[in-house]
Amino acid sequence: MFERFTKDAREVVQGAVAQAERAGARSIGAEHLLLALLDREGSRASFAFAALGLAERKDSLREALAGARRRAGLTRADADALAGLGIDVTEIVSRVEEAHGAGALSGDRRDTGGRPGRRTFEQDAKDVLEGALRAAVGRRDRRIGDEHLLLALTVRPGVPAEVLADHGVTQESLRRVLYGEGAAQAG
């Protein structure tokens, strides 16, 4: 499948690996793909971010992803569901971090074994890559670009989609910006 990726899309995947390495994560998740997309310049995805007013607010997206990572990757919907059962995720995070240090629930632990330098893709990241392929095929695009990766992140349930939606990036807004689809909205 990677032979169908554009240079920009390949650089996003390589950037996701670098993001995981910097964080000390054992594997590459969908959030690493989003972080790599945020670092892009001069690509279709970076154009979409700029058109949606996010060029100056990328740090806000990064902070939201970091907050979710501190909650062990739980979405706000997950945290709300647990709150309905009387479980206060914020309190649990606070107690765990008090006992074990900041970011203890993040899963960002340094590799202690396995193949050095080799990180696998988590299922959510694999799903995003597959979703990017579907997005490209659905548009009859011959190559998979970074914009397809961004589109795929908006439709796969989880933290990246939630963070993007909170910042006004939805599949509909992206399709409008990238392809001129849908009704224009005042705003």
Automatic annotation (TrEMBL):
Compositional bias of kind Basic and acidic residues: 107-122
Keyword field: Repeat
Pfam families attached to this UniProt entry: Clp_N
The Clp R domain, residue ranges: 2-187
Top-level taxon of the source organism: Bacteria
InterPro entries attached to this UniProt entry: Clp_N_dom_sf (IPR036628), Clp_R_N (IPR004176)
TM annotation in the entry: none
Region (Disordered) location: 103-122
Name of this chain's protein: Peptidase
